[in-house]
Amino acid sequence: MTKIKEVRTKLYEWTGPVVPPQANFCTNASDPLPEMGGSGRDNMGSFRFHQWLVCEVETEDGTVGLGNAALCPPLIKETIDRYLAPLVVGHDPFDNAYLWEKMYRITHAWGRRGVGMTAISAVDIAIWDVMGKLAGKPVFKLLGGRTKDAIPCYYSKLYADDIDAMQKEAQQWLDNGFTMFKSRFGYGPKDGTRGVMENLKRVEAVREVVGYECDLMLEAYMGWNVDYAKRIIPKLQKFEPRWLEEPVIADDIAGYSELNSGPIPISGGEHEFSLLGFKQLLEAKAVSVIQYDTNRVGGITAAQKINALAESYQVPVIPHAGQMHNYHLTMANFNCPMSEWFPVYDVEIGNELFYYIFKGDPEAQNGFLQLDDNLPGLGIELDTEHLHNFKVVQ
Ligand SMILES: [Mg+2]
Fold first, then answer.
1. Which of these ranges, 77-91, 267-281, 319-333, 349-363, has the smallest mean pLDDT?
2. Choice among 50, 271, 320, 325 that is catalytic
3. Ligand 1 centroid from CA 104, angstroms
4. Looking at 136, 162, 186, which one is the last position of a domain?
């Protein structure tokens, strides 16, 4: 038995070129705030993130597992360094369920959601990577193995833009073999009736390109409220969206429930945490699709429990974002029908950074992703090719 010897954190901050997003490219939770005092507040500020946290768990035999976190990386670093690392060092990584519970319970007063749970997630994912490497098996083989020949994935970008640009983008990825697409709304309550029309025009335009034999998902990223959603949903119905994602802020479970009883399935959960958080969502029939993000929800240990719970409610789980930590769970769970997939792209809002920090993440081919049956662990490693574009704080 080899024990955990050290837990290291590295804060990656992108200093390379950035593509500025167009105005109204996606709504977000801060949208409804009025502009006061002429401060020129950056509406997209809460959406963009150009940092990522890498967590390395090393065992006595020199095996290194990689975990990561994209929310508030400087605070995650501090949380792991100061509070979590001492809790797992000296333990057998295969006691992961105990280690998860230890991190969760000892930090419970302040750590159970948000930053605290994201930090636990990073350590937990690294521990799973170590377990896979020590066992000589890919992580998905430790989780239940292969439940599908390949993972169907949906194309996720189509931020609100000029209609021509959105149609061109949809056409490009349709030609690439994708049959499922997600686009973003750029307008919310503060944009009034004109904004409703702008939203509808873009949905119609994307539908026109992909047709009705493809799935189209729509994303509001918490930028609406119940009243606005209830006004626009009847108008969206004819475009047959597969789901409407995060129409309201994450804490408004009653709002989700009300909307989910309507004609369009509601999805959410990328800002929800832990097994008990999802129990509340499921009991309230708040979502028709669960979209936890493994690197926020409590890592792979918590995600597996949520998968089982969701299956008992017959609610599918389609993890938020692409990225290896989500793909292994999707491969290993019958109740995870597909993955989200972001295209490799110039650095824009920050999701892309994963591709610049790690290598080994699979690229979608004809709308499918493949995982290697023989690659131990998660199958990713730190990339050095783009290191010159990062400031790395250890
Ligand atoms: Mg989302």
1. 349-363
2. 320
3. 25
4. 136
